[in-house]
Amino acid sequence: MKVVLPDNSELELPDGATGLDAARAIGPKLAEQAVLVRSNGNIQDLRAPLEEGQEIQILTSRDTHDPDALYVLRHSTAHLLAEAVRRLYPGTKIAIGPPIENGFYYDFEFPEPIGEEALERIEEEIRRELAEGRSWNREEIAAEEARRYFADQGEDYKVELVDTADGPITLYTQGEFTDLCRGPHLQDSKPIKAVKLTGLAGAYWRGDEHNKQLTRIYGTAFYDQADLDAYLEALEQARARDHRRLGVQLDLFHLSDHAPGMPFWHPKGMVIWNALEDLRRRENLKRGYVEVKTPLLYDVATWVTSGHWDKFKDEMFLVPYSDRELGLKPMNCPGHMLLFGSGLRSYRDLPLRYAESSTLHRNERAGTLHGLLRVQHVTQDDAHMFVTPEQIEEEIFGCLDFAAYLYDLFGMEARFELSTRPENKLGTDEEWDFTEAALRNALERRGIEYTVNEGDGAFYGPKIDLHMTDVLGRSWQMGTIQLDSQMPARFGLSYMGEDNAEHTPYVIHRALFGSLERFIGILIEHYAGAFPFWLAPVQIRVIPIGEAHREAAHRLADELGTYRVEVDERNETVGKRIREAEVEKIPVVILYGEKESDEALAVRERGGEQSTRSLSELREYLATL
Ligand SMILES: [Zn+2]
Ligand SMILES: [Zn+2]
Question: Are the CB atoms for 431 and 388 separated by under 8 Å?
Answer without folding.
Answer: no
